[in-house]
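One record is given unchanged without comment:
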Amino acid sequence: MLNAQFIEDLSIKIKEISKNTPIGDLQKNLRALLQGAFTKMELVSREEFDVQADILRQAREKLDLLEAKLSELEIMLQKSNS
């Protein structure tokens, strides 16, 4: 049975070897290519999406309250003009 330290050492050695080979360059280039594509697609992080969704929810709640107040004022205005 392999122990955790042996697996960790093996993983480190594989990473070191791959850094000095075309595989390491490919990984760097692929990462840069994907980052560029994501930037062009204007993707946002989940955290930023959640923040914007919360702001939108709060704005919607305020809008609903203002619409209700406006309706009340319109009713009061109609009653006073009658």
In short: Helices lie at 4-19, 22-40, 46-81. The radius of gyration is 29 Å.
